[in-house]
DNA sequence: TTTGAAAATTGGCCTAA
DNA sequence: TTAGGCCAATTTTCAAA
């Protein structure tokens, strides 16, 4: 990890499809150098992958909620792992603060969110409290 | 937006660098069809962009915090916009729930997080309360 | 670092539904 | 009018020298 690696990452964080050639042009180096650095960073897990960013509302997911889950301490990890298995649950973090588990959940509308939270996820053993915060807008 | 578009999106959400050719092979269709659909979805803003996913800890950002901000109602939007300007603030959402503004903030260590939150961001006019939750692990 | 072949991208033009 | 087939030119990728 040097200066050059860092610059490559900055570029790829903004545009994950930028070609090796273009990156090389920006850094004033060779395509080979850039490619080998990226390959290495992928292998080392520095670059975990590449994702297309989708606008959920434009494909019918009009309700996205940051949702905290509180659990009994002993069920904490099993609940977190279980949450990962659901397609609707796009992100799962364990964290300090108000809630031990934080998630991002996509739903088509409020009714569907309610079903996901309270019918599907609410049945997971060990959950004591569900705290949804509906996202109004993603500014960044 | 039909079935085929949806399948393309699912693939690109998992691997944003997959080539048109490969996607076409998976869907058993032509490269042209895939390419034109992706172009259209990019133009319509369904696909907002492509991003490399970086492991923050592996590049020295050992402390990532989901941080809620409370503001006076009249300063709400200006604070949210201001937060977007900081390099350390990777994501900004406005939301219902406990906090009107939620963010994801990267720092090298606890000391740096403290400086970012209370020296830099804390000075933004209108902020009433800062509620950081340090991420222990991103499971999904 | 350079070189060259294979693969992917891109644009234009065309047809069919 | 739109989705997609076809072809040709260019660019990118990737491995070997």
Could you characterize what this model shows?
Two copies of one chain form a homodimer. Chain A has about 140 residues and is α+β, with helices and mostly antiparallel strands. Chain A folds into two domains: about 5-45, Winged helix-like DNA-binding domain superfamily/Winged helix DNA-binding domain (Arc Repressor Mutant, subunit A, Orthogonal Bundle); about 55-135, Lrp/AsnC effector binding domain/regulation of amino acid metabolism (RAM) domain (Alpha-Beta Plaits, 2-Layer Sandwich), CATH 3.30.70.920. Helix content of chain A is about 40%, strand content about 30%. The first copy, chain A, has helices spanning about 5-15, 20-25, 30-45, 75-85, 110-120; strands at about 45-55, 65-70, 90-95, 100-105, 125-140. In chain A, strands 3-4-2-5 form a four-stranded antiparallel sheet. In chain A, strand 3 and strand 4 form a beta hairpin. The longest helix of chain A has 13 residues, at about 30-45. Chain A starts with a helix and ends with a strand. At the A-B interface, helix 1, strand 1, helix 4, strand 3 and strand 5 of A face helix 1, strand 1, helix 4, strand 3 and strand 5 of B. The structure holds a DNA duplex (17 and 17 nucleotides). Chains A, B: It comes from Methanothermococcus okinawensis. Chains A, B: Keywords: DNA-binding, Transcription, Transcription regulation. Chains A, B: GO terms for molecular function: sequence-specific DNA binding. Chains A, B: This is Lrp/AsnC family transcriptional regulator.
């Amino acid at each position: 990890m040097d200066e050059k690696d860092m610059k490559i990452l900055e570029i790829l964080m903004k545009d994950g499809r930028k070609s090796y050639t273009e990156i090389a042009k920006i850094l004033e180096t060779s395509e080979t150098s850039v490619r080998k650095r990226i390959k290495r960073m992928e292998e080392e897990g520095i670059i975990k992958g590449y994702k297309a960013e989708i606008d959920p509302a434009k494909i019918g997911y009009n309700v996205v909620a940051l949702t905290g889950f509180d659990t009994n301490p002993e069920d904490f990890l099993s609940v977190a792992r279980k949450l990962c298995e659901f397609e609707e649950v796009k992100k799962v973090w364990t964290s300090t603060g108000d809630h031990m588990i934080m998630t991002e959940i996509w739903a088509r509308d409020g009714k569907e969110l309610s079903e996901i939270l309270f019918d599907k996820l609410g049945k997971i053993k060990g959950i004591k409290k569900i705290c949804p915060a509906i996202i109004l807008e993603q500014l960044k």
